[in-house]
Amino acid sequence: MKRFAFSLGAVVLVAGLFFWGWLLYKRHKGAGGRASAPRVVVLGLDGLDNEMLDRLIAEGKLPNFKKVREGGTWGDLLTLEPILSPIVWTSIETGRDPEAHGIYHFFEEDEKGGLRPASSLGRRVPAMWNVADAYDVSSGFINWYSSWPAEVIKHGFLVTNQMSSYPATPP
Known about the structure:
Number of strands: 6
Shape: globular
Distance between the termini: 24 Å
Radius of gyration: 18 Å
Order of helices and strands: EHHHEHHEEHEE
Structural class: alpha+beta
């Protein structure tokens, strides 16, 4: 799949940060099996335009974003084509391309041959929260795209991006 630079704002190579955090966890694992590694927070804003954000920060209209930028890591994200949120976010959460993870559009076919919004039911590979849970690493995810229905997480939480399933019609 052709890749190109696409400004997605505050998303910071989520998969890389997750595995960096996991490596820190393993490295700093103290007595009793508890980690003393620092926490990692990733803020992702779907469709955010970095040029607009830069202008608003420079004008003093977004002081908290300025603080986040100055105290953290910030950059442009390489993305996939077509640039559709379910594809991009599922690729970030799994570290895999659409051919591997199985999410190709905003809708997917359900068990009855109808359509439903892209969901965790259509994902074919583990997400970051599944990997973290497998290694007893606590994690929390809020409003992650295509995460409905929420999967059980023993060490943390997942708040899905939708409250329930609903009938969908083709676009």
